[in-house]
Amino acid sequence: MADSEKPSSIPGNAKNYWYANLKVVGVLLAIWFVAGYVLSIFLVDRLNEFHIGQLGFGFWFAQQGSILVFVVLVLVYALLMDYLDRRYQVGNRE
Amino acid sequence: MFDSTWLLAVSDPARPWTWAFVGITFALYLYIGWRSRVKDTEGFYVAGHGVPAIANGAATAADWMSAASFIGMAGLISFAGSDGSVYLMGWTGGYVLLALLLAPYLRKFGHYTVPDFIGARYYSETARVVAAICAIFVSITYVAGQMKGVGLVFSRFLEVQLEWGVLIGMGIVAFFAVLGGMKGITWTQVVQYFVLIFAFAIPSIAISSMLTDNPVPQIGMAASDISTKLNEALLELGHAEYTQPFTEFDRLNVFCITAALMFGTAGLPHVIVRFYTVRTVRAARYSAVWAIIFISLLYTTAPALGLFARYNLIKSLHGAQIKNVELIAADGTSEFYSFPDQRDDAQAKIAEIKERERQSKHTPETLVSFLLDSPEGEQLDWAVQWQRIGLLKLDDWNQDGKISLKLMDVIDDSGKTVKRSERASIDKDIIVLSTPEVAGLPPWVTAIVAAGGLAAALSTAAGLLLVISSSLAHDLFVRFFAPHASEAQRVLIGRIAIAFGIVVAGYFGINPPGFVGEVVAFAFGLAAASFFPAIFLGIFFKRANRTGAVLGMIVGLLFTLVYIVMCTSHKVLPIFFDAPLLTEDQYLFGIRPQGIGTLGMVLNFVISIGVSLVTAPPPDDVMELVESVRIPQGSGDAIGH
Q1: A62 with B637: Cβ contact below 8 A
Q2: I need a surface site. Which of B341, B368, B371, B546 has the fewest CB within 10 A?
Q3: How large is the C-alpha radius of gyration of chain A?
Q4: Which of B99, B110, B228 is facing A77, going by the closest CB pair?
């Protein structure tokens, strides 16, 4: 690990950063689970009773909507982590 | 085919265009590879520096989207209908896991290979070796899928059998992998991304405009009545509705396959490696954002294309009139019988061929190819092309001189009554390649699609072969057999490793355990069962130790591998097995081989955590390593570049 400096000047800071990070990841993955599994697999047949255009909503969500949700999740993660990096001063200065 | 009837043969109008497009794109890749190399030796191009997040995102997307995404997936969705969602969600949803759980931390860690991380985190050479072996199995399975995809493109456009197509593909992939072997690969992959997305978008937009009056396939699919029309057509032919869930897989299998693909995606070594080429942890996160945006362009188009393709296929093939039949012998000579005059002769001859094939299973078969007119009276050249290389087989069970796609009761070879249509068999991997022709688009569109398919396969194969090479040479061979090897010897060993990888992958490209997308799904299952838990626990569970991780990986990999081989033994090892060792009714909990990685992963997690807790905790310096990968600060240049 020749390239790493000391974890952080304030050890408590690194710990708090990590917990904040876990919280962000936890919330985003909960949404990921709902989009990918709950709506698209467990409830797909029930959601097909609703429609988006001419397609059943369950079908549409499994083949289109879930992917859009995933894109948004990755983007939101990057933005939130930028915020955490600044707040806990653990990011790289660029 | 130089007998007097060869004039009747249909010439392929797409072929000159294909030569042109494939030639131009290959020349472009060569040029870029060469330029990056020159820069490299001059020291202008240091990995990471000057690769902006958006470029790295495009390169990651190209690396990621293989022949399976490009050639295979829309075809699989086309026939699986609603259940095709497993591939869409599995591959994109896994990307979320990669971006949130692994990529930033591995970037911080900064070593070159995944086995490097596992070796350091679990302070064990054994762990590194096990990880290297896992990487080799995963990558070879994945390359095999690419090989079939490449072989398919070549066999179609050079009009040779699939085996020859795969052999030609092996040569070209080897050439590009050895040539691009270094970091220059990034810019080539950026170009390959744009070639492949362009090649996918053009036919999709054209077909969407034709069928739905809306040029955006994603909107056309939902807004028009095309899905309703397809559902009605399928019901009429005796199939389930296209949009009805759980017709291809049951709910448990949809769950397991989706999960195996998702967690496998996150554990794929060649994609993880891409995140080392950016400068900081922050850049790694934004590369992931760009990559999933680029990926989603193709992944939201593919289901629309699948739906349109199924509709077009039924429209043009159902009720097609047989004009004549060509019997192509193994030596390339062919006989023609015209319909309806010589129908009885032709049918007697076909029956004779079938009888012969039934008696001696392994003799090369005579191909039966029907020349057809669509119900609208247009000549269906594409159907002839695919029949000639044996990837589409038609029959005329009810002997009415027309192709019917209605399911009917037919007595098969073993004397059982089965439900079949007169489309006796179709290789799902031809769907994307033939879509422009089926839709009646000009031949240059077909050629663009062929070039795009090759771009997808080449970009992925190059990344995978590098992983195979680094695992074999850097992680295994040099460490254990030749620790004092010189730089030149190491490079040589790396090259030999690439050659070895290509030969093995080529074998499985010719004897594939399934369609391109399915083969690739096996690779993901193996990655899910071996890598994901080891890397994830390595970052998020400090207490995970050497013994737990090693046992977990071994059990996860072996369990999954053995199950897949047992279910596909007749296809993977046709010399030894005539039938699969495990048939569908013997599947464990009814789980198909594509989904078994999920169970393998659960086993791996249980063993890793359980064993870690009852054995000694990892040493302090490893604890510190884990602390340090958890914060972005101090992520310098990747080591090992």
Answers
A1: no
A2: B341
A3: 19
A4: B99
Of A4, A28, A32, the CB nearest to B634: A4
Distance from CA of A70 to the nearest CA of B (A): 6
Chain B residue with the nearest C-alpha to that of A28: B100
- Tell me the two tokens of residue B104: 């930033």
Closest to B95 measured CA to CA, from B253, B277, B271, B278 = B271
**To which H or E segment does residue B369 belong?**
strand B367-373
Tokens (6 digits) for B251: 């709910």
Q: How close, in Å, is residue B299 to chain A by CA atoms?
A: 8
Cα-trace Rg, chain B: 25
Q: Answer whether B245 sits within 8 Å of A59, measured CB to CB.
A: yes
Collapsing DSSP to helix, strand or coil, B408 comes out as: strand
Q: Does A20 touch chain B (CB under 8 A)?
A: no
The ipTM (two decimal places) reads 0.89
Mark B309-345 as b/e (b = at least 16 C-beta within 10 Å).
Answer: bbbbbbbbbbbbbbebbbbbeeeeebebbebeeebee
Contact A14 B293 (CB under 8 A): no
For the stretch B257-268, pLDDT in tens is: 999 999 998 888
Report the C-alpha gap between B597 and B526 in whole angstroms. Answer: 6
For tokens 């995933």, the residue is: A70
pTM of the model as a whole:
0.87
Q: CA angle at residue B280 from B50 to A23, to 5 degrees?
A: 145
The DSSP result for B294-354, as a single string, is HHHHHHHHHHHHHHHHHHHHHHHHTTEEEEEEEEE-TTS-EEEEETTTTHHHHHHHHHHHH
**The one-letter amino acid at B410:** V
Give A16 to chain B, closest Cα distance, Å.
11
Q: How far is CA B502 from CA A26, B136, B140, B382, B498, in A?
A: 41, 12, 8, 31, 6
* Nearest Cα residue in chain B from A26: B100
pLDDT in tens, chain A (94 residues): 334 444 444 557 888 999 999 999 999 999 999 999 999 999 988 899 998 888 999 999 999 999 999 999 999 999 999 999 988 888 765 4
Residue (of B548, B531, B529, B532) closest to B618 by Cα position: B548
What is the spatial distance between Cα B36 and Cα B17, in angstroms, rounded to a whole number? 29
Residues 25-44 of A with CB under 8 A from B: 25, 28-29, 32, 35-37, 40-42, 44
Q: Indicate the residue of B227, B262, B632 with minimum beta-carbon distance to A90.
A: B632
> Quick check: A74 and B96 in contact, CB under 8 A?
yes
